[in-house]
Amino acid sequence: MHRDVVVVGGGIAGLAAAHELALAGRDVLLLEGSPETGGKLRVREVAGVGVDVGAEAMLNRRPEGVDLARAVGLDVEHPAVVSSRIWTGGALRPLPRSLMGVPLDLDQLEASGVLDDDALARVRAEPSLPPTDVGDDLSVGDLVDARLGPAVTDLLVEPLLGGVYAGRARRISARAAVPQLVAMAERGSLVEQGAAMAPAGATYAAPVFASIAGGMGRLPGVLVEAVRAAGGEVRTGATVRVLAREGAGFRLTVGPTTARESITADAVVLATPAAATARLLGEVAPAAADALARVEAASVGVVTLAFAVDDVPEMVAGGSSGFLVPPVEGRAIKASTFSCTKWAWVGEAGAAQGVVHLRTSIGRHGDEASLQATDERLVELSLADLRDAVGLRARPVDTHVQRWGGGLPQYAVGHLALVARVREAVAAVPGLAVCGAAYDGVGIPAVVGSASLAVREVLGR
């Protein structure tokens, strides 16, 4: 079998690439090794309601994600305008406005009670520091430690980065993860620039986040149908074992050893995780394979819980969108989202069943042992922390545990240089492109943007 373009990987990157290629009139085949497409976007039924058990939102202020959803006919919704909290010092405290945990309003920071007097004084003294020379790169934690003190890193930056990357602040690249913070530090005071960037009382026309009614996990299925409607083909349960150069194109070996299939293609887009991409590039782009093999990944778990409406405290039922937990608190969970409050469609669907939904997340980079527990144990750990945090003592009427093994690539210090080496090596192979969460950002808009870049490279050649 010969195809114009083969896309390997059926997560959001691969689906977005296949969709764009099919709309451009290319004969495209998408191959996904698992039984279903979607990657970390997935809906599962909990207490009679389909809810997200993977990514539940995307940035709204970056357009690629919402534009793609609307292009395939999905309505975009925004979260409720309610506060989020941080669980530290034995209390749920208001989460101050921040740039990935770096406070933008010092009066609000003081009022929150997150920092003690000494740590707060350190932050207020920051404008006296000279600009920071970040050099080639620096970890987010080291940058914040130097300018604002380690308490800000431990209590504010860590929980925010833990939610996005499931990573460790003192290991994550500042240039890759928070380039705006780097630019600010190289100009001067983070505190002064933060106050100017987000003055007290300021309102913003565009919401920060967006989702889809019925769940972000609906997007993959709709994309599959759109790819097929445009003339493309999508196959699941089709693991690509080998990628080799053949003439001016490629040969892909697909399927189990007992029933292997050979497919040739003029061009290939690899939209697989870093480790799988490294394996496939071993023969055709060994320098890229070597670099990608260095990208580590974090495993995380999402525990979804449904409770009878009358069993939940007021805060869960309508007072907050959830809370974050700094790792220094030593808790099992790193965050809880009150889905019933955050997303109107979840609250309405749950109310029709007489339940409310919330979820917890567990797992950070280097802490994979926490996910070795049984599903039942992860549920009990979540319930124990929820009891201590919000006084929720009821038993759930239904639960779901979703594990994402190696689900989040880690952007270590020097990540941008690593990605540049990968792309340089891949660009030397005509007809080959890569995309996904390992390159330019782990959020949905960034991943869709990387897919568009890969498509442009393939079409341009």
Topology:
Layout: E1 2-8, H1 12-23, E2 28-31, E3 43-46, E4 49-52, E5 58-59, H2 63-71, E6 76-77, E7 84-88, E8 91-94, E9 98-99, E10 102-103, H3 106-112, H4 117-124, H5 140-148, H6 150-165, H7 174-177, H8 179-187, H9 190-197, E11 209-212, H10 218-229, E12 233-235, E13 240-246, E14 249-254, E15 261-270, H11 274-281, H12 286-292, E16 297-308, H13 314-319, E17 322-324, E18 335-337, H14 339-342, H15 344-353, E19 355-362, H16 375-390, E20 398-409, H17 415-427, E21 432-434, H18 444-460
Parallel strand pairs: 1-2, 1-15, 2-12, 7-17, 15-21
Antiparallel strand pairs: 3-4, 5-11, 6-11, 7-8, 9-10, 13-14, 14-15, 16-19, 16-20, 17-18, 18-19
GO molecular function, one term: oxygen-dependent protoporphyrinogen oxidase activity
EC number: 1.3.3.15
Function: Involved in coproporphyrin-dependent heme b biosynthesis. Catalyzes the oxidation of coproporphyrinogen III to coproporphyrin III.
